[in-house]
Amino acid sequence: MSKVLYITANPKQENKSFGLRVGREFINDYKKLNKDDVIEEIDLFDTYVPMVDKDIINAWEKLASGTEFQNLKEEEKNKLAAFSSLTDQFINADKYVIVTPIWNFTIPAVMKAYLDTVCVAGKTFKYTENGPVGLLQGKKVIHVQASGGFFSEEPGKNLDFGTNYIRTIMNFIGITDYKTIYVEGMNQFPERAESFLDKAINNVDELVLSF
Protein backbone atom coordinates (compact mmCIF):
# COMPACT_ATOMS: atom_id res chain seq x y z
CA MET A 1 0.00 0.00 0.00
CA SER A 2 1.30 3.44 -0.98
CA LYS A 3 0.52 6.90 0.36
CA VAL A 4 -0.18 9.62 -2.19
CA LEU A 5 0.00 13.30 -1.26
CA TYR A 6 -2.20 15.46 -3.50
CA ILE A 7 -0.87 19.03 -3.29
CA THR A 8 -2.74 21.91 -4.91
CA ALA A 9 -1.84 25.59 -5.09
CA ASN A 10 -4.71 27.34 -6.82
CA PRO A 11 -7.29 29.59 -5.10
CA LYS A 12 -9.96 28.90 -7.74
CA GLN A 13 -12.85 26.51 -7.26
CA GLU A 14 -12.06 23.17 -8.82
CA ASN A 15 -14.71 23.42 -11.54
CA LYS A 16 -13.29 26.79 -12.63
CA SER A 17 -9.68 25.66 -12.96
CA PHE A 18 -8.39 23.62 -15.88
CA GLY A 19 -5.40 22.47 -13.83
CA LEU A 20 -7.49 21.35 -10.85
CA ARG A 21 -9.91 19.52 -13.14
CA VAL A 22 -7.02 17.57 -14.65
CA GLY A 23 -5.55 16.92 -11.20
CA ARG A 24 -8.87 15.55 -9.96
CA GLU A 25 -9.15 13.37 -13.06
CA PHE A 26 -5.73 11.92 -12.27
CA ILE A 27 -6.59 11.27 -8.62
CA ASN A 28 -9.94 9.66 -9.48
CA ASP A 29 -8.35 7.39 -12.10
CA TYR A 30 -5.58 6.49 -9.68
CA LYS A 31 -8.11 5.53 -6.99
CA LYS A 32 -9.85 3.17 -9.40
CA LEU A 33 -6.58 1.39 -10.15
CA ASN A 34 -5.15 1.43 -6.60
CA LYS A 35 -8.05 0.90 -4.24
CA ASP A 36 -5.87 0.12 -1.21
CA ASP A 37 -3.66 3.18 -1.46
CA VAL A 38 -4.14 6.16 0.86
CA ILE A 39 -4.61 9.60 -0.69
CA GLU A 40 -4.08 12.66 1.47
CA GLU A 41 -5.01 16.08 0.10
CA ILE A 42 -3.50 19.45 0.97
CA ASP A 43 -4.79 22.74 -0.45
CA LEU A 44 -2.00 25.24 0.12
CA PHE A 45 -4.37 28.18 -0.13
CA ASP A 46 -6.31 26.69 2.77
CA THR A 47 -3.27 25.67 4.84
CA TYR A 48 -0.98 27.61 7.12
CA VAL A 49 2.40 27.46 5.37
CA PRO A 50 4.94 29.42 7.42
CA MET A 51 7.50 31.51 5.56
CA VAL A 52 11.17 31.17 6.36
CA ASP A 53 11.32 34.39 8.35
CA LYS A 54 13.25 35.72 11.34
CA ASP A 55 11.26 33.54 13.77
CA ILE A 56 12.05 30.33 11.88
CA ILE A 57 15.70 31.26 11.45
CA ASN A 58 16.05 32.30 15.10
CA ALA A 59 14.45 29.04 16.20
CA TRP A 60 16.84 26.98 14.07
CA GLU A 61 19.84 28.89 15.42
CA LYS A 62 18.70 28.48 19.02
CA LEU A 63 18.09 24.75 18.61
CA ALA A 64 21.51 24.34 16.95
CA SER A 65 23.13 26.05 19.95
CA GLY A 66 21.46 23.69 22.41
CA THR A 67 18.25 25.49 23.36
CA GLU A 68 15.35 23.15 24.09
CA PHE A 69 12.26 23.47 21.89
CA GLN A 70 10.05 24.32 24.88
CA ASN A 71 12.30 27.28 25.68
CA LEU A 72 11.78 28.98 22.33
CA LYS A 73 9.52 32.02 22.09
CA GLU A 74 5.87 31.15 21.54
CA GLU A 75 5.82 32.52 17.99
CA GLU A 76 8.99 30.59 17.15
CA LYS A 77 7.52 27.36 18.50
CA ASN A 78 4.26 27.75 16.63
CA LYS A 79 5.87 28.53 13.29
CA LEU A 80 8.52 25.84 13.58
CA ALA A 81 5.96 23.22 14.60
CA ALA A 82 3.81 24.03 11.56
CA PHE A 83 6.88 24.04 9.31
CA SER A 84 8.12 20.68 10.60
CA SER A 85 4.67 19.13 10.34
CA LEU A 86 4.58 19.87 6.62
CA THR A 87 8.10 18.49 6.20
CA ASP A 88 7.20 15.25 7.96
CA GLN A 89 3.94 14.89 6.04
CA PHE A 90 5.87 15.14 2.77
CA ILE A 91 8.55 12.67 3.88
CA ASN A 92 5.94 10.10 4.93
CA ALA A 93 4.33 9.99 1.47
CA ASP A 94 5.45 7.68 -1.33
CA LYS A 95 4.03 9.55 -4.32
CA TYR A 96 3.04 13.13 -5.04
CA VAL A 97 0.56 14.76 -7.40
CA ILE A 98 1.16 18.52 -7.53
CA VAL A 99 -1.15 20.98 -9.28
CA THR A 100 -0.08 24.58 -9.87
CA PRO A 101 -0.78 27.37 -12.33
CA ILE A 102 1.88 29.46 -14.00
CA TRP A 103 1.68 33.00 -12.61
CA ASN A 104 4.07 35.47 -14.23
CA PHE A 105 6.32 32.64 -15.43
CA THR A 106 6.51 30.86 -12.08
CA ILE A 107 4.57 29.21 -9.25
CA PRO A 108 2.31 30.93 -6.70
CA ALA A 109 4.19 32.29 -3.69
CA VAL A 110 2.55 29.81 -1.32
CA MET A 111 3.98 26.94 -3.39
CA LYS A 112 7.48 28.40 -3.05
CA ALA A 113 6.94 28.68 0.71
CA TYR A 114 5.77 25.06 0.77
CA LEU A 115 8.83 23.86 -1.14
CA ASP A 116 10.95 25.56 1.51
CA THR A 117 9.34 23.21 4.07
CA VAL A 118 10.15 20.27 1.79
CA CYS A 119 13.82 21.05 1.12
CA VAL A 120 15.37 20.71 4.57
CA ALA A 121 18.96 19.71 5.32
CA GLY A 122 19.16 16.61 7.49
CA LYS A 123 15.61 15.54 6.61
CA THR A 124 15.21 15.46 2.84
CA PHE A 125 18.85 15.95 1.84
CA LYS A 126 22.24 15.90 3.50
CA TYR A 127 25.64 17.43 2.84
CA THR A 128 28.56 15.10 2.16
CA GLU A 129 32.20 15.53 1.18
CA ASN A 130 31.08 15.10 -2.42
CA GLY A 131 28.23 17.58 -2.19
CA PRO A 132 24.55 17.38 -1.24
CA VAL A 133 22.70 14.06 -1.54
CA GLY A 134 18.92 13.65 -1.68
CA LEU A 135 17.35 11.35 0.90
CA LEU A 136 13.98 10.62 -0.75
CA GLN A 137 15.00 8.23 -3.51
CA GLY A 138 12.41 5.87 -4.97
CA LYS A 139 9.43 8.24 -4.80
CA LYS A 140 7.40 9.62 -7.71
CA VAL A 141 5.98 13.00 -8.74
CA ILE A 142 3.33 13.99 -11.26
CA HIS A 143 3.08 17.74 -11.75
CA VAL A 144 0.02 19.22 -13.45
CA GLN A 145 0.88 22.71 -14.68
CA ALA A 146 -1.80 24.99 -16.13
CA SER A 147 -1.01 28.13 -18.12
CA GLY A 148 -2.77 30.56 -20.42
CA GLY A 149 0.11 30.36 -22.90
CA PHE A 150 2.45 27.57 -23.97
CA PHE A 151 5.44 26.50 -21.89
CA SER A 152 6.02 22.88 -22.91
CA GLU A 153 8.01 23.90 -25.98
CA GLU A 154 10.08 26.78 -27.32
CA PRO A 155 10.03 29.74 -27.05
CA GLY A 156 7.96 29.57 -23.86
CA LYS A 157 9.99 26.68 -22.44
CA ASN A 158 12.87 29.02 -21.60
CA LEU A 159 10.47 31.14 -19.55
CA ASP A 160 9.05 28.25 -17.54
CA PHE A 161 10.18 28.77 -13.96
CA GLY A 162 7.31 26.64 -12.70
CA THR A 163 7.70 22.95 -13.40
CA ASN A 164 11.42 23.40 -14.06
CA TYR A 165 11.86 24.80 -10.55
CA ILE A 166 9.76 22.12 -8.87
CA ARG A 167 11.64 19.43 -10.80
CA THR A 168 14.95 20.90 -9.65
CA ILE A 169 13.85 20.79 -6.00
CA MET A 170 12.53 17.23 -6.34
CA ASN A 171 15.73 16.04 -8.02
CA PHE A 172 17.79 17.76 -5.33
CA ILE A 173 16.02 15.81 -2.57
CA GLY A 174 16.38 12.54 -4.47
CA ILE A 175 13.13 12.24 -6.45
CA THR A 176 14.05 11.78 -10.10
CA ASP A 177 10.87 10.07 -11.31
CA TYR A 178 9.15 13.33 -12.24
CA LYS A 179 6.66 13.87 -15.04
CA THR A 180 4.69 16.95 -16.09
CA ILE A 181 1.19 17.15 -17.54
CA TYR A 182 0.84 20.49 -19.31
CA VAL A 183 -2.62 22.08 -19.48
CA GLU A 184 -1.84 25.09 -21.61
CA GLY A 185 -2.91 27.64 -24.19
CA MET A 186 -6.40 28.31 -22.85
CA ASN A 187 -6.04 32.11 -22.75
CA GLN A 188 -4.12 32.37 -25.99
CA PHE A 189 -6.74 30.31 -27.84
CA PRO A 190 -9.91 30.33 -25.69
CA GLU A 191 -11.98 28.79 -28.47
CA ARG A 192 -9.78 25.68 -28.24
CA ALA A 193 -9.65 25.50 -24.44
CA GLU A 194 -11.74 22.34 -24.16
CA SER A 195 -9.63 20.55 -26.76
CA PHE A 196 -6.50 21.50 -24.80
CA LEU A 197 -8.18 20.07 -21.70
CA ASP A 198 -8.96 16.84 -23.55
CA LYS A 199 -5.31 16.56 -24.61
CA ALA A 200 -4.18 16.88 -20.99
CA ILE A 201 -6.70 14.27 -19.86
CA ASN A 202 -5.35 11.89 -22.51
CA ASN A 203 -1.93 12.34 -20.90
CA VAL A 204 -3.54 11.49 -17.55
CA ASP A 205 -4.86 8.24 -18.97
CA GLU A 206 -1.35 7.28 -20.10
CA LEU A 207 0.64 8.35 -17.05
CA VAL A 208 -1.69 7.05 -14.34
CA LEU A 209 -1.00 3.48 -15.42
CA SER A 210 2.70 3.74 -14.57
CA PHE A 211 2.22 5.86 -11.45
TrEMBL record:
Its cofactor is FMN. Residues 2-206 form the Flavodoxin-like fold domain. It catalyses: N,N-dimethyl-1,4-phenylenediamine + anthranilate + 2 NAD(+) = 2-(4-dimethylaminophenyl)diazenylbenzoate + 2 NADH + 2 H(+); 2 a quinone + NADH + H(+) = 2 a 1,4-benzosemiquinone + NAD(+). Its EC number is 1.6.5.-, 1.7.1.17. It is an enzyme of class 1 (oxidoreductase). GO terms for molecular function: electron transfer activity; FMN binding; oxidoreductase activity, acting on NAD(P)H as acceptor; oxidoreductase activity, acting on NAD(P)H, quinone or similar compound as acceptor. Binds 1 FMN per subunit. Belongs to the azoreductase type 1 family. NCBIfam families: PRK13556.1 (NF010075). Homodimer. Quinone reductase that provides resistance to thiol-specific stress caused by electrophilic quinones. Also exhibits azoreductase activity. Catalyzes the reductive cleavage of the azo bond in aromatic azo compounds to the corresponding amines. This is FMN dependent NADH:quinone oxidoreductase. The gene is azoR.
